[in-house]
Amino acid sequence: MRLSQLKVGEKGTVKEFTDLEMSVKLMEMGCLPGEEIKVQRIAPLGDPIAINVAGYQLSLRKREAATIIMQ
């Protein structure tokens, strides 16, 4: 399952990334493999997505969230 498929309130653990370039940026922001992510909010039109990761809130575009594979 991809992060972009989670609903508000759902949690998951980062397993891997599908885009190498984007994965570097996401890991710099705390989205490391093994890290738990919880979806806090989704904008009315579905983009962006607010997530809670590594103790802080991060907003991602839906296409960015789609590159994160969850367990």
UniProtKB/TrEMBL annotation:
Coiled coil: none
Lineage: Bacteria, Pseudomonadati, Bacteroidota, Sphingobacteriia, Sphingobacteriales
SUPFAM superfamilies with a match to the protein in the record: C-terminal domain of transcriptional repressors
Organism superkingdom: Bacteria
Gene Ontology MF terms in the entry: transition metal ion binding
Segments forming domain Ferrous iron transporter FeoA-like: 1-70
Pfam family, one: FeoA
Stated name of the protein: FeoA family protein
Regions that span the bilayer: none
Keywords: Iron
Xref: InterPro entries: Fe-transptr_FeoA-like (IPR007167), FeoA (IPR052713), FeoA_core_dom (IPR038157), Transcriptional_repressor_C (IPR008988)
Natural source organism: Mucilaginibacter paludis DSM 18603
